[in-house]
Amino acid sequence: QVQLVESGGGLVQPGGSLRLSCVASGNIYNIAAKGWYRQAPGKERELVARITAEGATYYAASVKGRFTISRDNAKNTVYLQMNSLNPEDTAVYYCNTISSSRRWTWGQGTQVTVSS
Fold first, then answer.
1. Which of 15, 57, 83, 109 has most Cβ atoms within 10 angstroms of its Cβ?
2. Which own/partner contact pairs does 72-77 have at CB distance under 8 Å and 24+ positions apart?
3. How far is 79 from 34, CA to CA, in rounded Å?
């Protein structure tokens, strides 16, 4: 079983930046992909970015060119660098892992608010 703990959310002005971190612990040896999702009030949870065990990345069209997903395997941590933030990026951001057996795990979420 994998446990995920996110950090790095907060309040930022439009045009600003934040970096989210997600530390994984437990049975981390069969993780096939790590990703970030977000859910805004009244909306469905959506995939923001994902990185596979092989290092391939995927970004939602709305964040491509502004957000970067990366990882530090030595620290069991995945990051989401978010630049040029706008109010539409306001949401609770969730870290996610998918195991090789297709088991999904979620973090508790971290709030990101973009407002002047």
1. 109
2. 75/23, 76/23, 76/24, 76/25, 76/28, 77/21, 77/22, 77/23, 77/24
3. 10
Residue 35's closest CA among 89, 99, 87, 111?
99
3-class DSSP state of 20: strand
**Mean pLDDT within 54-62:** 97
State both tokens at 85. 């933030």
SS3 101: coil
Judged against a pLDDT cut of 90, whether residue 28 lies above it is answered with no
Query: How far is CA 57 from its chain centroid?
Result: 12
- The length of the chain is 116
